[in-house]
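Sat 14:20. Reprocessing the chain from the morning session after the first attempt stalled halfway. Input below, unchanged.
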Amino acid sequence: MTMYDFLFINPWPWWLGGALIGLFVPLFYLTANLPLGVSTGYGNLCKIVVRNTKLEALNAKPYKKIFTWRVFFIIGIFMGAAIAKVLSGDYTLITEMGRFNSTVTGSFTLSMLWFFTGGVLLGFGARIAGGCPSAHTIHGIPCLAPSGFLATAGFFAGGLLVVNLIYRILF
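Finished this time. Tokens:
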């Protein structure tokens, strides 16, 4: 296998991706003195779309400046995925979601509505929790913050409970 194949074609081993993220987050915090997260950038993107909103959450201090580094970070996530897809030589749009498609049958529109609803609920929960679960975990644990460990345990426990309840009620 070539280095190109390893970096851009084949999926990275889970442990390597996790280790790189785990090393990058505290390094970013030490050098830029900023936590790495997405939910504030998502709020900035929402503020770009609905600039004159009366929603208190989007008029808070983190959203006064709209085009912050976090907006470009989110754009970079999507651009990185698109570039990796093009470099792999595969230009097809994947709509198959594995077990989800085998469990939730219906139209593509219904699936998108399902994911949109989940995204709204995730965003709402992220605002209540003061950040998204991934930021509490990805930033909190490598920085050895007790709140990161506690929040992660709570997110996992809550996620397991809700998924099991939804699965038992709907399926």
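The chain has a mean pLDDT of 82.
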